[in-house]
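Board notes, transcribed. Complex of a protein with adenosine-5'-diphosphate.
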Amino acid sequence: MVIDASDVRRRYGETLALDGVSFSVAEGEIFSLIGPNGAGKTTLIRALFGTTDAEGEISVFGRPPTEVDRGRVGLLPQEFTPADRLTARELLAYYAGLYDDARDPDAVLADVGLTDSAETHYENLSGGQKRRACVGSTLVNDPDLLVLDEPTTGIDPTGRRELWRLIEGLANDGTTVLLTTHYMDEAEELADRVGLLADGELVALGSPTALIDRYGGDSRVVIEADDDRAAEDALVAAGYGPIDAGRHVSVPADAAEISSIVECLADAGIAYEGLAWRQPSLDDAYAVLAGTDASGTTKAADGPGPTAPETAVSGGRR
Ligand code: ADP
């Protein structure tokens, strides 16, 4: 295991920031920590890398946090902002200069797709290029473990995808990646496993697919009907349900049931502008587990714990 943490605890005065967290990360794995603000993600990362004390057992590459060979780790903190007036190449050369045995900055520029922007000042790079340059600065020491704290916050969708491909490529080449994110699509797309922290506890741990299967609820047909009430009545009369009358009417349905729902609506003369089949996502699982969606909007007043995954979104069918 690259990271092994057992029963990690950290208290700040009255606040229990980490309340007995145990997990491990295997070599070459992309492990994503998710959870609401204040859940303890940053404290956990700091505990793992020895920048804050914590109780419990932690080993990184088989060593206690303060004894880990820094050359094997690349850490990109959330608030990292390099000097604007450096070019991309100068930036990487600066960070390479901090290590005895660093990679050639031009090779790192090529890895992060910035060869053509080598002479561009950091301030003139696009949002996505900036973040790739920042990731590049963590790659100069050729780390075996890359720790990225919210690497794509504040960059546009194209930039995010560029960064995802970069992270995937690094993991495919054997780099272990620990990343925190507020974006559930990012964790779902990238992570081999996800750990959800809430109030200092790891309340769920597993592959995105496993968490979605267990907590995400049913796949649903969502209907943008002209008359929601009429659509609802027609579906209930045909035995579908329970109906979720959110922004649009929706019913639990397998892929095989889509055509019969379409028929049922046609038979009842229901007009609709759109009809979609929606499979549950990590966002749905997160909403159940954390009681909010990833943007922090409360969905359930007292979200059930991991032992009680079923919510109103799951239910019977005809
Ligand atoms: P996250 O990164 O998930 O947003 P943090 O690890 O930053 O969460 O914070 C976890 C909890 O610990 C929060 O309640 C936060 O207020 C508290 N905390 C974090 N750092 C400190 C600190 N240096 N002093 C006091 N409380 C802190």
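The first strand starts at residue 3 and ends at 12. The longest helix spans residues 157-172.
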